[in-house]
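Q: For a teaching session next week I want to show students how multiple molecules come together into a single three-dimensional assembly. I've collected the sequence lines for a complex. Could you give me the predicted structure tokens for the whole thing so I can convert them for display?
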Amino acid sequence: MNSQRSAWWFLAPALVVLGVFFLLPVLAALALSLTDYDLYALADIRNLRFVGLGNYWELLHRPLFWSALGHTVYFVAVGVPLSMGASLGAALLLNSPLARCKPLFRTALFAPVVTTVVAVAVIWRYLFNTKYGMANYVLDLLGIQPVDWLGDPHWAMPTIILFAVWKNFGYNMIIFLAGLQAIPPDLYEAARIDGASAWRQFRHITLPMLKPTLLMVAILTVSGYFQLFAEPYVMTEGGPLQSTVSVLYLMYDEGFKWWNLGSASAVAFLLFLIMFAVTVLMVKLSQRGEHPDGEPA
Amino acid sequence: MTHGPRPRRSRRGLWLAAIAVGGALLGSCAPAPAGHELTFWTIGREGEAIMQLLPAFERAHPDIRVKVQQLPLTAAHQKLLTAFAGGSTPDLSQLGNTWLPELAALHALEPLQARVDRSTVIQPRDYFASIWATNVIDGTLYGVPWYVDTRLLFYRKDLLKKAGFDAPPRTWAEWRRMLAALSDPQRHVYGILLPTNEYEQLMSLALQQPGPLLRDGGRYGNFESAGFKRALGFYVDTFKLKQAPGITNVEAGNPWTEFGRGVYAFYLSGPWNIGEFRSRLPASQQDDWATAPLPGPDGAGIGAAGGSSLVIFRTSKHKDAAWQLIEYLSQPAVQQQFYDLLGDMPPRRSSWEGGALRDDPKARAFREQLEQVKPTPPVPEWERIANEMQLVAAEAIAGRLTIDQAAAEINRRADTILAKRRWVLDHAQPDLAREHTP
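A: Of course. Below is the structure for the complete assembly, covering every listed component.
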């Protein structure tokens, strides 16, 4: 009994911090999402109306919300596999015994992660300028018609995906590299003696041994990519024709640009529900047909 | 707290810092014995220029010290609202006149009419009438105009002359003819640059129409009026006829160089671009460009009344000192100095009668247009409505909506945005109504 009480005392500081800085704001935001808190309510609290689920109802009837969700899902569905593929590929190359100057390449490939989004986005905007950009210059050399990268509603999102993948793949690459280095070399040795090809070694040793790492990276990347904001904010400002407005961008506009905190909170909770569902689904899928034997994560 | 002595990296330095911080905290509670310290927020580049105007003010008022905080334009709106919510607004601030209705709706601003009545410096009749009117919300004056902004035409004289036009256009019909003559989509040459994500151009055309943009005291949109449809039609046609490229300002990148190269013969923009063109175009091209009042359906010179005002916050403890600073900055001589430093155009007619402004041919079109500018609707939601207007207009440019469909859609969105305003107006609290009357 006494030891239990002292355990609570040890937990208390962490619980207080969590409660004050996490639980309380979340509850406040939930309450806010049930009201029409806006500029007028900020001026005089008597202008605040309780609207129940009205904000959610309106959002679900707003075409912009659905198109923002569509853009976000597009970004996640294309961006996450691309980003993880690039990370894994780079990690495999770096981990190969044939690779030379490993520290140099590791640093070079990781460099985009530590750059500032805004500064880099400005450079990418120049690279993808329709008229003077390097991307179109290269296409021109190959005899391909120039592409209106950031001005065509169909091309803007792919350009942003390209930018985001380039910016982020280095981070996961380092995690994969650590995962690869943790695989015991005797497994590969045994496989080689048995005459397994490089592809079979990858398929039957590397992938299964990397699975926990892959799952963790996938979950982190998906939840990170669902929160797409900075890239369109600095590259396209949501345009052209709102084709790069993401859910978080919509929330930012509602909340901080137009000060409709009620409906902005509703956007936040809808996004939370969606991300929660997707994460649960991913964990469930990865557990299917597998014994819960507690593999090291 | 930031003006205490800088702590040295020693224990003594830390103690000094602690005392300084404590002193600053105490000082902010008690009335300062040695005069007033004013906190003045500026937005954008104005903050740098004002630093050079303040020493003279502080010499004339030894009991007042001014602390200037520069806010970047992109963060200013958010910072002002957050400061209001947190009760930490400055004594006075620069405020764009489309943001003024918002802060006035929050009751954050001090009414100024009584001070203006007593003032010997600030003469309302000397100010451009529409610019002054943007500071009057529901009959109460909340700001004094500081500098003005209206969008008009920058054009290439030499290109127009080559195409056989000796004078800039005065009417839309003339303008259309010139745009047609100066555009050649095959060579990627366009009559004009109208970035599709900026609402100021379409808004300027819409303000030239006789009807208001909102009706019933700002309760509903008036975008299905014949006037607005005409403006929208003219705007969208310019893109359909390939007289303007359908690009945003992100892609336009460096419009000044493109203008110099002759990619665009017209550029619809504001006063700060006089300085930009002077510094970015080579000396040999300086005689090739000029400014002209914005062509209208029937005649030139009507545009949007933009700019920034100086406001005092209601919670300020140094309102008299803040007013003295506003009076100082409103003197014609100081405004002329301000123009020399930054190119911001003064809102007073007498400020235009001397200094560099009087004889500047590039500024003349602005002077002409400022007499006829029209204010934007004085509702807090205006900026959002204008944004939505432009988003829908961009859809029309892309051919996804007809003019009628676009006008109806803008109206629908405006009505939705104004729903809360209608409710507040219909349930006006009696004491709110009283606060609004001067």
